[in-house]
Amino acid sequence: MKPLKADLMILFITICWGSSYLFMKMGLDTLGEFNLIALRFGLAFILAAAIFYPRLRQVNLRTIRYAMLLGSILFIMFTALTFGLKTTTTSNAGFLISLTVVFVPLIHTFLFKKKIEKKLIASILLALTGIALLTIQLPFTFKIGDLFCIAAALCYALHINVVSSAAQKVDTLSLGILQLGFTGLYAFVMSFILETPVLPSTTHGWIAILVLSVVCSALGFILQTIAQKYTTATRTGLVFSLEPVFAAMFGFWFAHEIMNSVQYFGAALVFLSVVIASVEVNTLKRSNMRNRPRIKKENTAA
What we know:
Elements: H1 3-27, H2 33-51, H3 53-56, H4 61-84, H5 90-97, H6 100-111, H7 118-135, H8 144-166, H9 172-194, H10 203-227, H11 233-240, H12 243-254, H13 261-278, H14 281-291
């Protein structure tokens, strides 16, 4: 698969995930947080496993270990995000999750013991300024949901880095399916301990669960795992930075969520920071060198 095709696949996933915030809010109207996550990923795993059962029969222990790790990261991420959506808007959640693309190179730098680039420091400071404008309201209150969404973005970035590494070592399709199963399993255990697991009781609840399970989870996370084998973590993060744009669009069209001018400016700073974090400086330099006019050397021969 060519990198462009992989990026287009990730763009499709981004559009699907942009809608997920709205459907998660719909699901939370009748379901508990862990119950929602368990149904979302449990149904996604059952569907994917039924379709690709022959592939799963060949799975090895290494793939299972990576799937357990990725499943735990996804579980923590969606726990934070689901609780966050209880007290923040769809638009806010989408833009805060976009910090993932800032965290991706930061975590990569930490894991591989590399020096933090100056542009990364600048993008983080810009993102923090944007978050402040987006979330802090007079008299300087900070919603706990916003903090949960930032934590989810950190987990999301860790997930992207681990997937990039694992995709080069194990079967990506099996890995993508099994991580769904482990995420659903962890959520079901927590739901059984802290909640009373139930099925959706309304039509809107079933619509939310089915879209989240089939489109956003089964299709989304399996395609992500496959696509990341043919592209880099940074490029993946850059495409995912468009997620808040789609989240805001779905929030505006269906939930009638409107941000004020200060929040729009803050959101723009967050979006700008993730773009800055993803642009390769060396690529820009090479592009500028190619575009510079060439100076012909004079013939000095006598």
